[in-house]
Amino acid sequence: MYQIKQMLNKLRTSLLFRLSILNIITITFVIILIGIAVYNTACMLVDGMNNLGEQTQEEFENILLQYILFFSIILILVTTFIHYYLTKKLITPIRKLIESTKKINEGYYPEPVEYHSNDEVGQLIKQYNRLIGDLESNDTLRRKMISDLSHEIRTPVTNLNGYLRALEKGDLEGTPSLFHSLTVESDRLKQMIEQLNQLKDLDYSTHQSFNRKEFVDIQSLVEQSVNMMKWQSNVKNIDITVSLEAAEIFLNEEGIQRVFNNLIDNAIRYNIGTNPIYITGKKVDGYYRLSVSGKSMAIDEKDQEKLFERSYRTNRSSDIYQEGNGLGLAIAHEIVAQHGGNIGLEVRGPINEFWFTLPIKKE
């Protein structure tokens, strides 16, 4: 009894059931109106002929009423069946979506929902499948990167722990070279912890919508970034040369400042010797092109296209950007893309030029 009651409750809450009931009520009402109109019209026409007796007229009206009732019932049943079949066919993909979301709620990613149509429901399912694919890909990538970083963190921690214990027990004498090694290991550990923070920032930049835009003087924005990096460049005796064409760009100042800071920081960090860094900006075909260039270690051609991917890692441990896992550039790519621009790298011998473009006109 309880199971029957539960099934009835489930049936009452079903969208298909409610649509079917609404359809039956509507069709029945329309057929009744049509039947009454046909019956009355037919009776009036026959009655106006004046050549039928009263008994014949009454028999005609009874037979007509029976036919109208019979065909009305048949019509209601047929239209209800057709409506139920078509509605069920339309609702089936929605039910698949519901089942798919239940699987996500249970903690695992479902298979793509199949639907071979390009109507509104088809477009919804297409976007849903793409979203699930992106979520699964991002989750897999995040797990891999965290696993990689966790493994890499273990080495400097083990080294620091071993040296500190040896110093504590007096088994090892503290020398400037030893302290320098410990400092290097400490810096490595610090960089890896920063990378873990960048994983959070990457998610933020991916889902953050940089809609709060305004016209910003590009020269002022670049000047702020250069001033923030001045101390870092002075420590390495690196000059920064700026050459910008004046322009006001419609952008999110916080986001683009972040992109530019990342490019300048990379240019300083990976600069070879004390070679100058060049920052240029100019208008090109409706876009404003900003670039940061300097002499740094070579990047393999096969790695250049992957620099802005989240999972970027070069093949050689000595290569630049190996430490950062490409997260900073991936964040920059996300921000620039949300502004309708592009970002890339041009290599001219020992010179690496990172550039990005922004639309000049307001979107």
UniProtKB/TrEMBL annotation:
InterPro entries given in the database record: HAMP_dom, HATPase_C_sf, HATPase_dom, His_kinase_dom, HisK_dim/P_dom, HisK_dim/P_sf, HssS/ArlS-like, Sig_transdc_His_kin-like_C
Q: Which GO terms describe its cellular component?
A: plasma membrane
Q: Name one GO molecular function term.
A: phosphorelay sensor kinase activity
Matching entries from Gene3D superfamilies are given as: 1.10.287.130, 6.10.340.10, Histidine kinase-like ATPase, C-terminal domain
Q: What class of enzyme is it?
A: transferase
* Key words of the record: ATP-binding, Cell membrane, Kinase, Membrane, Nucleotide-binding, Phosphoprotein, Transferase, Transmembrane, Transmembrane helix, Two-component regulatory system
Stated membrane topology is: Multi-pass membrane protein
- Superkingdom field: Bacteria
Q: Which reaction does it catalyse?
A: ATP + protein L-histidine = ADP + protein N-phospho-L-histidine
Task: Give every HAMP domain span.
Answer: 88-140
Pfam families the UniProt entry points to:
HAMP, HATPase_c, HisKA
Domain (Histidine kinase) spans 148-362
Please give the name of this protein.
histidine kinase
| EC number(s) from the headed UniProt entry | 2.7.13.3
Where in or outside the cell?
Cell membrane
Transmembrane intervals: 21-42, 62-86
